[in-house]
Inverse folding.
């Protein structure tokens, strides 16, 4: 993947090698901040209001000032343009930290640090979407309220993904402390049972933008996507299981812990649902 040459830092677009952040930034010291990853197609930024709403809600919940009177669309488009990404697929990443402030707790009086990156994105090949991804259950469980936010404390998810890779899988299944199914390391889950779609209701799962978009698209077609507490036994009975996120879209699961999973033809419907919302 080509390295981005320009990034947005606080108030301006700067060459990457001049984009300097203090070692006292609390994002670096404590993971005290949040991020969003968005997909752009030919310069069109997908589901920006949903991503910004989640970032703003997390910033407010943790007392990080959220940029006011900030033309997000113009800034994100400028970062895309500066990196020659007005055409094709791109990954936009927005990162907001508390900036520099002394003391533990969540000091309110700070100058937050804002960084926006844009890089070319190469999605998996169509054959990979057709084949699906193997998934491995991460043995370490987690229940934490920070899981509901896309915080910079990503170490648990990186370790879960690495566990999956070490098993020859591509994504990890994360369980809550009580064993209920939660989400993937960087994905939400959707499954189908008796013709209906479900997503695990879990106290620590990130409220996925893609899940929300799929939910409203399915509703427009008279179908539902219900959030329900999901055990591993429930999941084992599902007719189809998919991983979703803003970059990947909808990726079928081909096996779970080595047990092959049937690729349901409903993958096409979910992918279609996402496409129609992207174009809306
Ligand atoms: C832990 C976790 N769950 C779910 C998702 C999916 O979220 P979204 O659909 O908003 O991209 C992500 C995204 O990267 C994630 O990191």
């Amino acid at each position: 993947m080509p390295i981005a040459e320009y990034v947005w830092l606080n108030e301006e677009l700067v060459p990457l090698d001049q984009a300097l952040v203090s070692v006292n930034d609390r994002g670096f010291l404590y993971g005290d901040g949040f991020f969003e990853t968005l997909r752009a197609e030919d310069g069109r930024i997908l589901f920006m209001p949903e991503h910004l709403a989640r970032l703003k809600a997390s910033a407010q919940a943790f007392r990080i000032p959220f940029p006011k009177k900030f033309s997000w669309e113009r800034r994100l488009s400028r970062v895309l343009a500066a990196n020659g990404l007005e055409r094709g697929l791109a990954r936009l990443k927005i990162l907001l930290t508390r900036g520099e402030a002394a003391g533990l707790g969540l000091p309110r009086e700070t100058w937050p640090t804002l960084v926006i990156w844009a890089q070319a994105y190469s999605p998996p090949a169509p054959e990979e979407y057709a084949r699906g991804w193997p998934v491995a259950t991460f043995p370490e469980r987690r229940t934490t309220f920070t899981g509901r936010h896309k915080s910079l404390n990503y170490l648990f998810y990186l370790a879960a993904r690495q566990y999956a890779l070490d098993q020859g899988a591509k994504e990890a299944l994360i369980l809550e402390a009580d064993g209920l199914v939660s989400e993937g390391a960087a994905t939400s889950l959707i499954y189908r049972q008796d013709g209906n779609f479900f997503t695990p209701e879990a106290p620590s799962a990130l409220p996925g933008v893609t899940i929300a978009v799929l939910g409203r698209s399915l509703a427009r077609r008279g179908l539902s996507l219900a959030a329900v507490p999901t055990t591993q036994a429930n999941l084992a009975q599902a007719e189809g299981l998919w991983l979703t996120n803003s970059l990947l879209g909808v990726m079928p699961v081909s096996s779970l812990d080595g047990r092959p999973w049937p690729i349901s033809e409903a993958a096409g419907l979910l992918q279609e649902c996402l496409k129609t919302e992207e174009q809306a």
Notes: The chain has eight helices and 15 strands.
